[in-house]
Amino acid sequence: MRARHAQGQRPFHDDVHLRHGGPAQRRPGAAARPDGFRRLYARCRGPAQRRYFWNIADPGWAYGLYYAVTGPLLLGVPTILNEGGFTAENTYDIIERLGVTSLAGSPTAFRLLMAAGPESAARVKGRLRVASSAGEPLNPEVIRWFDACLGAPIHDHYGQTELGMVVNNHHGLEHPVRQGSAGYAMPGYRIAVLDEAGKEVGPNEPGILAIDIDNSPLLWFTGYYKKDTPSISGGYYRTGDTVEFEPDGSISFIGRADDVITSSGYRIGPFDVESALLEHPAVNEAAVVGVPDPQRTEIVKAFVILAPGFEGTPELAEELALHVKKQLSAHAYPRQIDFVAELPKTPSGKIQRFLLRKAEVEKQQQQN
After folding, report:
1. What is the pTM of this model?
2. What is the pLDDT of residues 197-206, one digit of tens each?
3. 31 and 177 housed in the same domain
4. Which of 6, 18, 49, 213 sees the fewest Cβ atoms within 10 Å?
């Protein structure tokens, strides 16, 4: 990594080094300055009366390493690491036994808590003061469930291995929280939304989320270790994520640039369709991708893991498509739905939509 240091500040020599997923011979390395975690975590953790913090993310993932290990230890805050596998019962046991008051994790983990039902959650309802989510967009139904079944507000945050958390809904900062928003720029960063020409755009215009390097004094990342960094150019670091500014300055996440679906001239974010599907009681998990189509460029296809007690019939597929059409719009509903037993995910729980797309493309090629 190449890390920059604030003027007059002693450089850190024991940086945190991470390698991204993928074949070992072409993994770019990134590193981060521990002081950045300390500054961020000091703002994130909120009032001192919160006794125990638990980030259930794997420490092998940046979210877990930065904010389950490095950040808490730099501040002397009690943190919890669980060597056992993740289950809802195990999670509730630890919250109850150790008095966890601040919980962090990924939407995938929180949806598994939801799937265990409100009865399982009842024994720890009211124990959590706050919860935080990162890794993927936080679905609205998770927010409502946490409020109703655990009695705790859950806020979404956005970050990357290269950046740490840079867009946040902080529990410790006073600002409005809008459901479905990733939040606001972290103090110490200036964010922008860029069009295809690299120009900044205004509210309600989709583009690539970028960090204004010269006006972001807490930005530590200046490039990959012994690798080219094409995402840094023109004074910006481009994240590769498609977002849009809201009029209040917060950010709404649309999807990875390569996840956004183009159908009949419309740009459709998979997150919106997945969230609509998850509102249906038959759906435990969902992933949405664009499948090549000669007439519409792409069509929306959904992969659904059903809740217990439901059967994947053509009638249910039609019901789910109509459900999404009513919630969103006529162009955004899934024209194809496959019922599956599992979804491809990274070790940190992120859905690997690109593998689903690849399988669909290969299937079409074989048929042709």
Report:
1. 0.73
2. 999 999 999 9
3. yes
4. 49
